[in-house]
């Protein structure tokens, strides 16, 4: 989303890169016990007016043929997602990409998505490490805000960057819930003995898609038929629907990442249903595979699952949901275990 966790300072990005390079070992991943209660040091960031590095940089709309370049930039930033996900984001937000190009190379990118005439989400904001600090990112964001600044823009940010974004937007942000970016191996998922009789899961393609859209809309209010069709139907994705007494009680999707798998979304009506669906998703992938996902801290099942797996799962960063004008949380935020994407979705 707009100015999301991709907007890292060099120090924080270096730490993240080292963590990724050390995978699958989690010995040096930030432990869960440190994560939720202890504040991180606040770094003061300022947008530079130095434009030397941005000379001969063209800011333009992204096109499908830019996928390899955006993927290369994403890989450089050590984001743990697969090129298939980049392509899927392009399909979902066909006209929503902005790229910065220099000498034929993609050196910056930004993604936005329209939900309505007055509401946008934005993210996947990256600038090449070679050009950071030279105004390329500022040029991209200035153009974006000039075009869409009158709309209500939903986004996420690493929590300690919020003050910087408020200064950049020129007005206080409307803040929402918090969450964490987690990564690790989930070995312990305990279920009550009667869950197999109460719940079962099926492939999403075997469900009436209108029913699935209606269920998703209970979370978002705004229907997302095309987004879900593309996201859940991605070739490499595996997507399940949770049924309770024949009715939809949740759904989830998992797909290959650069290292391990990316989980999202995963929504369910209660804690037990969430655990049943999460275990079913884990059973779809090779044993002891690493899973990467964004978890809202309000989710009760998430807290229980993280506690049960704290020796093999770590937190990289906390994030804060916000809007540039008015943040209205999705109706069932507490039922969200994993975000569809931290880039182009309300959750």
TrEMBL record:
Segments forming domain N-acetyltransferase: 57-192
Domain of life the protein comes from: Eukaryota
Record InterPro entries: Acyl/Acetyltrans_Enzymes, Acyl_CoA_acyltransferase, GNAT_dom, YitH/HolE_GNAT
Gene Ontology MF terms in the entry: acyltransferase activity, transferring groups other than amino-acyl groups
Coiled coil regions in record: none
Xref: Gene3D superfamilies: 3.40.630.30, 3.40.630.90
PROSITE patterns: GNAT
Protein name (database record): Uncharacterized protein LOC106154409
Organism: Lingula anatina
